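User: As part of a screening pipeline, I want to sanity-check one entry by hand. Below is the sequence and the SMILES for zinc ion. Please return the complex as structure tokens so I can compare it with the automated output.
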Amino acid sequence: MMAEGILSAVQLPGESPRYELADKQHHHHFHCRGCGKVFDINKCVTDFAEMRPPGFSLERHEVTLYGLCSACLEDH
Ligand SMILES: [Zn+2]
Ligand SMILES: [Zn+2]
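Assistant: Here is the complex for your manual check:
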């Protein structure tokens, strides 16, 4: 699955790794607890650097949001 470096692993806590194209632009994920789907979020907040401990260098971050997608909300 990691052939040619085209795919990058997406690690979600408590789940087996997923793979997606590595050349996608920076994005995050929304994990729906209703249907279990993972949606791409093409948005990012930019103030993660403020969270880093003093003297540390921040290189990257991963963010996963959890909740219900619109389809699951309509089911309830
Ligand atoms: Zn859902
Ligand atoms: Zn981001």
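Points to compare against the pipeline: The first strand starts at residue 7 and ends at 10. The radius of gyration is 15 Å.
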